[in-house]
Amino acid sequence: MKSKHTAFLFLLTLLSTVLHNISYGQDIDSVNFCNTKWRTSAVDKGIYWKQANIIDLFNSRQEVNIIEIDLKKHNKSLRLAALANSLKKTSTLAQQHHAIVAINGGFFNMKNGGAVDFIKVEDTIVNTTASPSLRANAYFAFNSRKTIITTDSSQTSPYPNVLLSGPLLVKDSRQQQLAKNAFNDNRHPRTAIALKGNKLILCTVDGRNANSQGLNLEELSKILRWYGCHDAMNLDGGGSTTMYIKGQPDEGIVNYPSDNKQFDHLGERSVANIIYIFSKK
To answer: Which residues belong to the signal peptide in this entry (predicted)?
Structure first.
């Protein structure tokens, strides 16, 4: 009887230690992220660029770039640019459309160009969904007054600009449950878009390099929630992950695109669509 009691206490202590260590690890990551000292630059009135190389996040090193956009000032300047059957670099599309800031958008056909998921620009459907995917379960939609992230396609009908991508990461400040698969679970460069009150958040995390190892989608969800985003969705990542800011060196590319396998600003991949803020200047 005494040996059973001792064994029970041992198992209880072991379980408590494991749970404590798991909780402690999560707390350390959230503290490390929330205590990050961002290099912050004003891009324009109501637009701020934040950059950091975080040395210890999820037992890895991560290069994170965030653009915060005040939608009270810039919702009317929010745009999509989309190519129906071709591809161009994010920087090229951004410059051609007089963007002040931009990120790459949704998934696309790498051979023939064009989005593989539904995209509508100024009430014109540019591409329809080629093949429905569980991955593409979130819509980014906006007009001149309002911007939403939703999983309900019926909510997007009044909006002239709609981009289908995903998966959805955060909804109503709650991290979403993600399917277990290689796309979600493996670490890659990532691009995401989110809403934080009246601010639109553009986010890139670089990867495939010792200077930035990339995130899985659970980790990406966590940092967006820690950042205070109440709604967030994943966009095309990997070699497509690109952030553009007008006036910056290297054609405006401020992150480290991975397509050339170098940790520099020159490894852009051509894409089919971008999300950007139009500059009147």
So the answer is: 1-21
Total-model pTM? 0.91
Residues 27, 181: Cα–Cα separation, whole Å: 25
Element spanning 10, H or E = helix 2-34
Question: Euclidean distance between the first and final Cα of the chain, in Å?
Answer: 82
Question: Is 84:126 a contact under the CB 8 Å cutoff?
Answer: yes
